[in-house]
Structures are given as C-alpha cells and as structure tokens.
Amino acid sequence: MLRVLVCVSGGGTNLQAILDGVAAGTIRNTEIVRVISNNPGAYALERAKNAGVEGVCVSPKEYENRELFHEAFLKAVDEVSPDLIVLAGFLVVIPEMLIAKYRGRIINIHPSLIPSFCGTGYYGLKVHEAALERGVKVTGATVHYVDEGTDTGPIIMQKAVEVREGDTPKELQQRVMEEAEWVILPAAIDAIAMNHTK
Ligand code: GAR
Fold first, then answer.
1. Which run of H or of E encompasses 7?
2. Ligand 1: which atom is nearest the Cα of residue 181?
3. Is 140 helix (H, G, I), strand (E, B) or coil?
4. Contact status, residue 118 vs residue 151, Cβ threshold 8 Å
5. Is 110 a catalytic residue?
6. What is the DSSP string of 89-139?
C-alpha cells in the first residue's frame, strides 16, 4: 500500500476527491495516513475527521521563527513515514530540507496549464483572474512533482478546460476543479500507487 500524507490550507475539495477515490476504489493500493494543515480553521481538517483520517495542524503562527516551524512540520511528516506527500491546496512554501529528503515523492496540484499562470503569486483565485485578464480560451490544471522552484518540477498529468464567455473568476475556478483537478489528482495518485511495490 502507498502511504499518502496530504497537506492542505483551506476548503479541502481536492482532499475530498482523494478520500472519495480511496473509498470508492478508484484510487487503488493507497492509504491516507495523515492530513496536515497550516491553518487551524481549515474545513479540510473536518473532512479528514469525517473520513476517519488523522488531521494535524502545524501553524507557523505557533512558532517563534520559520526554522522552528519547519522543524515541527518535518517532524509531523516523518512521524508517519509517507511514501507520497500530496500538496492539495497547500499555500505554504515547503522547506528545502523536506524537498531534499522526499525528492520525487512530493506532488502538487496547480489550477492552470503550467507553464501558464504559475510561479510566485499565482495561487487560488488569482490564477483564474490572471487567465481571464489575458483572455485565454482554454485553461486547466496540472499535477507535477515538487522541486525547489515554484511550480517548476516535472509534469505528471494535465487536463484542459474551456473558458466560457462572461466567466467570473469563481465560475472558472469551479469548472477547473470539477472538470480537471478532482479528476487528475486522484488519477495521478492511483498511477503512482499502482507502480508502488510495497
Ligand atoms: C485548488 O484550486 C488548488 O489547485 C489551488 O488551491 C485550491 C485549493 O482548493 N492550489 C494552488 O493554487 C497552488 N498554487 P481546495 O482546498 O478546495 O482543494
């Protein structure tokens, strides 16, 4: 079984898609061992609890400096020795120490077709605002491995989504989630899990 740790910051709809996929058997050979949130109020923690998965909050606000936060975060990861770390709407920069230790075992979902609308400052609704501002007719989502850069790691899976005339950023965000994110993130985890021999 692939032991998966999911990191979240907010609503957790991508986490829900993963939990549902595991329950339905569309994500095979996978166990969600822990959910970490940087935000104590994240609804994602509620979703973890409802699914019987342990939820842990490691908030930077509870630590005197970034170094102590990173140490606590790494400890919360190491405790469950995950085979795969999934960043599912995790809006905190991952410590380099963690990237080095878990290289090739951390994936992220980004709500655009990388290399468009990605990198520093492009997260959440801002990505869709930028896509509408530029006037693109097609956008989408990307699952990629995480390296030291922002959204620069090798691409695993992408799915395109049509932009419609008159879309608001929220409408576009919702369509990208439904048609792309909630499809390719579970599919990528399943593909990784099926290649996992343990
Ligand atoms: C998702 O749209 C995800 O792609 C995005 O945050 C949202 C989280 O929603 N991630 C990024 O922008 C990362 N750069 P969720 O909490 O409902 O899954």
1. strand 2-8
2. 4
3. strand
4. yes
5. yes
6. S--SPPPHHHHHHTTTSEEEEESS-TTSS-STT--THHHHHHHHHHT-SEE
Q: How far is the CA of 113 from the centre of ligand 1 (A)?
A: 14
Contact 14, 91 (CB under 8 A): no
Q: State the pTM of this model.
A: 0.97
Which residues have a Cβ under 8 Å from the Cβ of 100 and sit 6 or more positions away?
Answer: none
CA distance 52 to 108: 23
Q: Ligand 1, from 106, 112, 181, 183: best to mutate by most atoms within 8 Å of Cβ?
A: 181
Nearest protein Cα to ligand 1, atom 11: 123
What is the full per-residue pLDDT of the chain (198 aa) written as tens digits?
Answer: 999 999 999 999 999 999 999 999 999 999 999 999 999 999 999 999 999 999 999 999 999 999 999 999 999 999 999 999 999 999 999 999 999 999 999 999 999 999 999 999 999 999 999 999 999 999 999 999 999 999 999 999 999 999 999 999 999 999 999 999 999 999 999 999 999 986
